[in-house]
Design goal:
By secondary structure, this protein is α/β, with parallel strands linked by helices. It has one domain (5-235): Aldolase class I (TIM Barrel), CATH 3.20.20. It is 47% helix and 15% strand. It is built from 12 helices and 8 strands. It has helices at 18-28, 39-45, 48-56, 71-84, 97-106, 123-128, 133-137, 139-152, 162-172, 201-207, 216-219, 224-240; strands at 9-12, 34-37, 60-67, 88-92, 111-115, 157-159, 177-180, 211-213. Strands 1-2-3-4-5-6-7-8 form an 8-stranded parallel barrel, surrounded by 7 helices. α8 packs across α9 (162-172) and α9 runs parallel beside α10. It is globular and about 45 Å long. The structure holds cytidine-5'-monophosphate. Cytidine-5'-monophosphate (C5P) is lined by residues 12, 14, 38, 64, 115, 118-119, 159, 181-183, 195, 213-216.
Length: 244
């Protein structure tokens, strides 16, 4: 069955407290497909956040931990993640294939996604990390390299910028699940945004993203529910209209 527009939307619960997160879950519950629990809230509250989201909403749960450690440690951490029964979890794609494989092996039914290159990283960041010019001049090559390694290790897919989605779908096939953060609708493009490789919801979905992570444009809107509806409408147009 084809996904509805709102099911493409993942809303990150980037809040310092349960109360702030709960207020947004109430407003967005039937307007998004998944809630993402990130480091800020998970470090403060632990697995109780997962329980809280599950009690309040029927939406999916994405635990964005971006794990990166030795294979044994990540494998053991992933066994704990499996017990939480969330839908998606992230590990860092900058690590070894062995670590990615250990994560997948212990994740149970939870799908493991590898973060390829953070969307607030640009060419200058890649250079500062010591990469060759080949990757500095074309960060998408680094994204492809990491995505291939992740799939070879058994990951269900990757997290990448909307600018790389189409290329990855072509190179790796439609089965590779793609989650795209760094989403900015036209109505909220602001100079000085920390996200560098941004795309609109429409462009991300047209490029083939399976899910888009969209936080501040919804969280900081005067009416978050209305903002989420606007994003869903834009996605719907992208799904039914011709590819730009
Ligand atoms: O839309 P906004 O910029 O507020 O979304 C930020 C969220 O997306 C954060 O939760 C951040 O961790 C997540 N994210 C990201 N870039 C990635 C992976 C996840 O910005 N590559």
């Amino acid at each position: 069955m084809q996904k509805t527009a709102k099911e493409y939307i993942i809303f990150p619960l980037d809040f310092p407290s349960m109360e702030a997160a709960q207020s947004h879950i109430r407003q967005l519950d039937d307007r998004v497909g998944m809630f993402k629990i990130g480091l800020e809230l998970f470090i403060r509250q632990g697995p109780a956040v997962v329980e809280m989201v599950r009690k309040m909403s029927g939406a999916g749960i994405f635990l964005d931990l971006k794990l990166h450690d030795i294979s044994t440690t990540v494998g053991r951490a992933m066994a704990s993640v499996a017990d939480l029964g969330v839908d998606l979890v992230t590990v860092h794609g900058a690590s070894s294939q062995k670590m990615l494989g250990a994560a997948v092996k212990n994740a149970g039914k939870t799908k493991v996604l590898a973060v390829t290159l953070l969307t607030d990283n640009d060419a200058a960041t890649v250079r500062a990390q010591g990469f060759k010019d080949e990757y500095v001049n074309a960060p998408e090559k680094l994204v492809l390299l990491r995505a291939r390694m992740a799939l070879d290790a058994g990951c269900a897919g990757v997290v990448c910028s909307g600018r790389e989605t189409a290329m990855l779908k072509t190179q790796l096939g439609k089965e590779c699940l793609i989650v795209t953060p760094g989403i900015r609708p036209q109505w909220c493009l602001t100079p000085g945004d920390d996200q560098k490789r941004v795309v609109t919801p429409l462009k991300a979905v047209q490029a083939g993203s399976d899910y888009i992570v969209i936080g501040r444009p919804i969280r900081d809107a005067d009416d978050p529910a209305r903002a989420a509806e606007k994003v869903a409408l834009e996605i719907e147009a992208g799904l039914s209209g011709p590819v730009a």
